[in-house]
Amino acid sequence: MACVTGKPVTQGGIHGRKEATGRGVFYGVREALGYGEDLEGLGLSSGLRGKKVVVQGLGNVGYHTAKFLSEEGGCKIVGVSEVNAAIYDPNGLDITKLVQHRKRKGTLLNFRGTQNLSRPEDVLELDCDILVPAALENQITLGNAKRIKARIIAEAANGPTTPKAEQILLKKGVFIIPDIFLNAGGVTVSYFEWGKNLSHMRYGRMQKRLEEIHTENLLHSTENLINRRFSERELHQLARGPEEIDIVNSGLEGTMIAAYREIRETLKRHKRIHDLRTAAYVVAIQKVARTYMELGVFP
Questions:
Q1: Closest to 114 measured CA to CA, from 94, 84, 134
Q2: Predicted pLDDT of residue 232
Q3: Is 278 helix (H, G, I), strand (E, B) or coil?
Q4: If I label 271, which of 48, 89, 117, 217 is the partner at 20 to 30 A Cα–Cα?
């Protein structure tokens, strides 16, 4: 089973794989916006809440990114596009209702309270805090880079920004969170699935009941201290051990946070590095080089 990942859960797959890339984008953007000093030049405060977001591409990655940014991060999704349609609402879109509308009508267009844009690519040029290209590569080019108004570009797709366009954006002071880091959530959870298959054991199966017993004992001790009894419902909710999805999401979150911090530290430490993409490549190359040297491949 381990030779292929992304399988149905019933066939050896893992809970959380479908939404993993979008959830990883959410964790990565949230971590990047947690450093107020990095955002001072952009005129933005730290944190996700209230940030205006545009998402290009409402496929699996774009949908889950928009969903988590809005529902868990408190962002306002003001623009969304697909290959043949784009809409805008400065007051924010309800992503769940938008997807239901698309399912009924076969298009994003004419969603209640929104403005239809003339061309799908116009969504890239909307005024927003965070632009999330989650569709195809080479979407931000020399042809439109100067018209990009977003302060932050979060690359959920592979290679959405051309090298020359990136030079223009960096000169404009745009903060780019690169794809090499940001969309790694899917392959990270595929790695978890691989490890699960190799061990022939579902995550959480061994420790779930043990953790529940420990928590139940702690709760009963607490009841004696406060002279109050928890209801059965409260005991069940408080003592619930981690399911596989909880462990997967926790592992993904920790991976994305640690990776961003390492990239950011490299950027801050080396004066000749001026962007996160270069810093990410430096981190990657150093890891490969260190491994080769430790294995004796290089003297």
A1: 94
A2: 87
A3: helix
A4: 48
Mean pLDDT of 255-263: 98
Write down the CATH number for the domain with range 17-185: 3.40.50.720
Sign, Cα dihedral of 232, 245, 252, 156: negative
Backbone φ and ψ for 29, nearest 5 degrees, come out as -65, -40
CB 66 within 8 A of CB 94: no
CA distance 83 to 105: 15
Cα 108 from Cα 152, distance rounded (Å)? 25
Q: What is the pTM of this model?
A: 0.91
> Domain residues of the chain, as ranges?
17-185, 208-241
pLDDT reported for residue 299? 63
Amino acid residing at 127: D
Residues in CB range of 56: below 8 A, 6 or more apart: 62, 80, 81, 123, 124, 131, 132, 133, 134, 135, 139, 160
Q: Strand, coil or helix: what is 256?
A: helix
Residue 128's nearest CA partner among 28, 43, 25 is 43
Task: Report, as an integer, the average pLDDT of 74-82.
Answer: 97
What average pLDDT does the structure give for the chain?
95
CB-CB contact of 66 with 82 (8 Å): no
How far apart CA 136 and CA 75 sit, in angstroms, is: 23
State the residue for tokens 């933005």. 44
What b/e string do you get for 114-125 counting C-beta neighbours within 10 Å, with b at 16 or more?
Answer: beebeebeebbb
Between 258 and 203, the higher pLDDT residue: 258
CA angle 95-126-152, nearest 5°? 85
Dihedral over alpha carbons 132, 137, 143, 147 (to 10 degrees): 0
